[in-house]
UniProtKB/TrEMBL annotation:
UniProt entry keywords in alphabetical sequence: Cell shape, Cell wall biogenesis/degradation, Glycosyltransferase, Hydrolase, Peptidoglycan synthesis, Signal, Transferase
Active-site residues from the entry: 170, 186
Keyword flag Glycosyltransferase: yes
PANTHER family, alphabetized: L,D-TRANSPEPTIDASE (PTHR30582), L,D-TRANSPEPTIDASE ERFK_SRFK-RELATED (PTHR30582:SF24)
Official protein name in the record: L,D-TPase catalytic domain-containing protein
Pathway: Cell wall biogenesis; peptidoglycan biosynthesis
Signal peptide: 1-31
Protein family: Belongs to the YkuD family.
GO molecular function: glycosyltransferase activity; peptidoglycan L,D-transpeptidase activity
Length: 224
């Protein structure tokens, strides 16, 4: 057999093989394609559900006008930087001098828990921890024995400790109690106000707490 005849036969055989292969792997147009290498295909998972939008922040409690932080006319012989607690009117005054003071609305001790006297700030703390004193636990045994600082802590964002007493000037996460008599003797401000006051005073600041029986008229007059 000649070389040309041999080459022709091999070419015909190769063509036939290709045709068979094409037929084997072809499929009707409407059929789904066959995966040749299914073990290489990634597992397709269903798309996760859309993340729910965070609820809108609750509308912030708005203090009555008289309890909002403001500069007022306030005449006193006390030196600038002194804190004066006007217990009957639920105000805290920070003396600025020149006949003026920064006035804050506060919450005070409930009936039987008010006190008066002169103290100094002996310690300051940001987001303080809270350890109820034994006297409070005796009255309210359900209270925690210790609570770390944070937004849920009843001392709020800042605390200023008064002398060696159990009393503090501190923040609160219940702003609706400002202007009321609810505490066990501590003096509370909104977190926003206590942060402002904290930034203005230092350890050693004099604090004068007027007695509840001092029914003098409100001494602070709003500057118009």
């Amino acid at each position: 057999m000649s070389n040309s005849s041999t080459r022709s036969r091999f070419a015909a055989a190769a063509f036939a093989t290709l045709a068979i292969g094409a037929t084997a792997f072809s499929a009707p147009a409407t059929a789904a394609p066959l995966p040749l290498f299914p073990f290489f295909l990634p597992q397709i998972e269903a798309a996760p559900p859309p993340v729910a939008a965070a609820p809108q922040e609750e509308e912030r409690f708005e203090l009555p006008a008289r309890l909002r932080r403001q500069v007022v006319n306030y005449y006193t012989r006390e030196a600038p930087g002194t804190i004066i607690i006007d217990t009957p009117n639920t105000y805290l005054y920070l003396v600025l001098g020149n006949g003026q003071a920064m006035r804050y609305g506060i919450g005070i001790g409930r009936d039987g828990f008010t006190w008066s006297g002169t103290q100094t700030i002996t310690r300051k703390a940001e987001w303080p921890a809270w350890t109820p004193p034994p006297q409070m636990i005796a009255r309210q045994p359900y209270l925690p024995r210790h609570m770390t600082g944070g937004p849920g802590n009843p001392l709020g964002a800042r605390a200023m400790y008064l002398g060696g007493t159990i009393y503090r000037i501190h923040g609160t996460n219940a702003p609706e109690t400002i202007g009321t008599r609810v505490s066990s003797g501590c003096l509370r401000l909104t977190n926003e106000d206590v942060i402002d006051l904290y930034s203005r005073v230092s350890v050693g600041t004099k604090v004068i707490v007027l007695p509840m029986t001092d029914r003098r008229a409100d001494l602070g007059r709003t500057i118009r």
